[in-house]
């Protein structure tokens, strides 16, 4: 089934959309693996109306990427798109990283071995099951370094409760919503949490967390309740104007 052959319920949201979280930089983590796949996805992004894409590959113990290595790969991708994407149009591209708050995070932070989003916003994540024992201290050190912590997909952390979210928002931690969470892609609990936080206005940024082509096809089948759709539409509009 082609990308644009279904009801396209979610597609209008992508007109002018800025994707702050995706794994489209090829061959560097568990996301897209080939240049050709990246070209295909980015071409489809343009047709959907996506304006800008921040590629945010993992930096973590199990995926020991470095800013230098990722920057070099990013330049290779841009050169590939220019050479083999002739006649195609693509969104504007930026490079950042999704940074696991693991045992090496503090050392990487001290050495500046991380790639922030524009505005000195640093995309961070934890295990889905357990927080780092010193999570609050790590977030404080991010802020002390002059950066604003952006917590990736908080709705997916099963250890977090409503009080945890409230406490983090009280500490000025930015929340980034995964669009796929609202589709039920990560299960009913993540969807319920995402809807609840969306209604409370907790999110500031939106991303796809896209790892493969099939996610784009899945988006064309997503139908959302009217109340959730309206909240999401407003969030996407505000989020896409930030950077």
Task: Break the fold down into its secondary structure elements and pairings.
Elements: E1 18-19, H1 35-48, E2 52-55, E3 58-59, H2 67-84, E4 92-95, E5 98-100, H3 105-111, E6 121-125, H4 135-144, E7 148-152, H5 162-170, E8 174-178, H6 179-182, H7 188-200, E9 203-207, H8 213-219, H9 226-240
Parallel strand pairs: 1-2, 2-4, 3-5, 5-6, 6-7, 7-8, 8-9
Description:
The radius of gyration is 17 Å and the shape is globular. The chain has one domain (22-240): TIM Barrel (Alpha-Beta Barrel). Helices cover 40% and strands 14% of the residues. With 243 residues, it is of the alpha/beta class. The two termini are 33 Å apart. Strand 1, helix 1 and strand 2 form a beta-alpha-beta unit.
Summarize the structure.
With 243 residues, the chain is α/β, with parallel strands linked by helices.
Number of strands: 9
Q: Shape, please?
A: globular
Q: Number of DSSP helices?
A: 9
Gyration radius, rounded: 17 Å
- By helix and strand content, what is the structural category? alpha/beta
Quick one: biggest sheet?
6 strands, parallel
CATH architecture: Alpha-Beta Barrel
CATH superfamily: Metal-dependent hydrolases
Would you identify the regions where 5 or more consecutive residues have pLDDT less than 50?
Answer: 1-8
**Could you estimate the helical fraction of the residues in percent?**
25-40%
Mean pLDDT across every amino acid position? 93
């Amino acid at each position: 089934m082609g990308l644009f052959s279904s009801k396209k319920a979610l597609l209008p949201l992508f007109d002018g959309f800025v994707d702050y979280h995706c794994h489209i930089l090829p061959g560097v983590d568990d996301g897209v693996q080939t240049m050709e796949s990246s070209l295909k996805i980015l071409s489809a992004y343009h047709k959907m109306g996506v304006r800008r894409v921040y590629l945010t590959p993992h930096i973590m113990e199990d995926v020991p990427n470095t800013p230098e290595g990722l920057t070099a790969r990013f330049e290779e991708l841009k050169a590939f798109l220019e050479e083999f994407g002739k006649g195609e149009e693509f969104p504007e591209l930026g490079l950042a990283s999704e940074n696991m708050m693991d045992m090496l995070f503090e050392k990487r932070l001290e050495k500046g071995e991380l790639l922030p989003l524009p505005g000195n916003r640093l995309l961070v994540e934890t295990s889905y099951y357990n927080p780092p024992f010193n999570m609050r201290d790590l977030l404080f050190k991010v802020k002390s370094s002059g950066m604003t912590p952006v917590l990736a997909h908080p709705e997916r952390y099963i250890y977090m409760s409503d009080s945890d979210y409230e406490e983090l928002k009280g500490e000025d931690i930015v929340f980034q919503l995964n669009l796929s969470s609202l589709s039920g892609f990560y299960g009913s609990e993540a969807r319920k949490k995402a809807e609840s936080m969306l209604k409370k206005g907790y999110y500031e940024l939106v991303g796809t967390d896209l790892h493969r082509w099939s996610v784009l096809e899945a988006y064309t089948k997503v139908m959302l309740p009217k109340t959730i759709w309206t909240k999401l539409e407003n969030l996407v509009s505000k989020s896409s104007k930030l950077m």
